[in-house]
Amino acid sequence: MTKVVAVQMQGRVADVSYNLAHIRELLDEAIRFNPKIIALPEFFTTPIVQDNRLWGCSLPPENQALELLKEYAQNYQVFIGGSYLEKRNHDVYNCYTLVQPDGTITRHDKDLPTMIENAYYKGGNDDGFHQTSLGKVGTAVCWETIRTQTVKRLIGRIDFLMTGSHWWAPPVDWVVLKQFLKTMDQMNRQIMYETPSRFARLLGVANIHAAHSGKLNGKLPTIPLNRFSLPFNSYLIGETQIIDNKGEIVARMSVEEGAGVISADINLKPSKPSEALTNRFWIPKLPLRFHFFWHQQNWSAKGLYRYAKKNNLLKAL
Fold first, then answer.
1. CATH number of this structure's domain 2-310, picked from the four choices 3.60.110.10, 3.10.20.740, 3.30.70.1350, 3.10.20.30
2. pTM > 0.70
3. CA–CA gap between residue 259 and residue 11 (Å, rounded)
4. What's the whole-number mean pLDDT along residues 16-27?
5. Are 98 and 70 in contact (CB under 8 A)?
6. Which of 16, 173, 211, 311 is the most buried (most CB within 10 A)?
7. Domain ranges of the chain
8. Confidence label for 228 from pLDDT (cuts 50, 70 and 90)
9. 153-190 pLDDT, tens per residue?
C-alpha cells in the first residue's frame, strides 16, 4: 500500500503569488502525512474565468510554480503534479507537470480546452503517459476525464492516475433561466462526483484527484470578441477524491469543506477495467444543455485567444 494525498484549493483569479503561497501552505499540510504522492489541482496558479488579466498569467517553461514542485519533490522525496498555464514560443498550454523525487520533470498538455479555457491556451497532442521510478503514470485534467479518447490513449498502459480539475458551476444569480440553471447545477455536480471513480473503473487503476472549491467571479463571453460579455458569478465545485484500483472512493472532500487535503493508503498496482467503454465522444450522457454551452463557449472563447495573440497580449510572468 502507498500513502497518497490529494489537495483541494481555494484560489484567487489572476493572483499567482497568492495562489502559490496558498499551495505551499497546503503542501506543508500534505507533508505531515508522509506521502509518496501528492496531487495538485488543474490550474493551481490561478482559477480561470473570462478576465483579461489572465492573458498575463502564464508562466515560462522555467518558472516559480515548477520550482515549488521541485522543492517539495526533492526535499520530501515525493511525486508531485498539477497543472498551470505555460507559455512556449508564441502559444500557451494547460500543462500538467509531474516532478519525481530525483527532480525529473515530465509534462502533459491538456488536449482540448473547455469552454472559456479556449481564451487562454491551445490544446496539446501528447498522450498523458509518464514513465517514472514508481511506475507508469497517466495524467489527465478536468473534462479530459469525461472523454472516451482519453481512456483509449491510456488503457492498458498505466499503473495509476494523477488527475486534477477546475470544474465550475453555472451562474448562480441569473434571474432569467433561474430554474434551468439550478437544474443544470445539480446535474453538473452529480457528473463531477461520479467522474473520478468512473474514470478509474474504465482504466482499472487507482486515481488521485485534486480539485478547486470556492467562488468564481468574472464574465461570460457571448460572441468571439473582447466585448458583449455577461456577468458570471459562480463557484468551483470541489470533489477532491482518492479512488482505489477497484474504482471505489476511499477519501473525499466536498466543495462545502473548502481548502484542505485528504490522504489514504492505496494499492497502486493496476487491476482490470470494471466498466466497459462506450462509442460516444463523452463518457457520461451529457444533457443537451451541456452540449449547447460546450459549443457556444468554445466558439466564443477561441475568438478571444486569437484576439489576444494578434494583439500581443499573451504574456508570461
1. 3.60.110.10
2. yes
3. 9
4. 99
5. no
6. 211
7. 2-310
8. confident
9. 999 999 999 999 999 999 989 998 999 999 999 999 99
Q: Which amino acid is at 235?
A: Y
Amino acid of residue 202: L
Residue type, 142: C
**What cell does 246 get?**
477497484
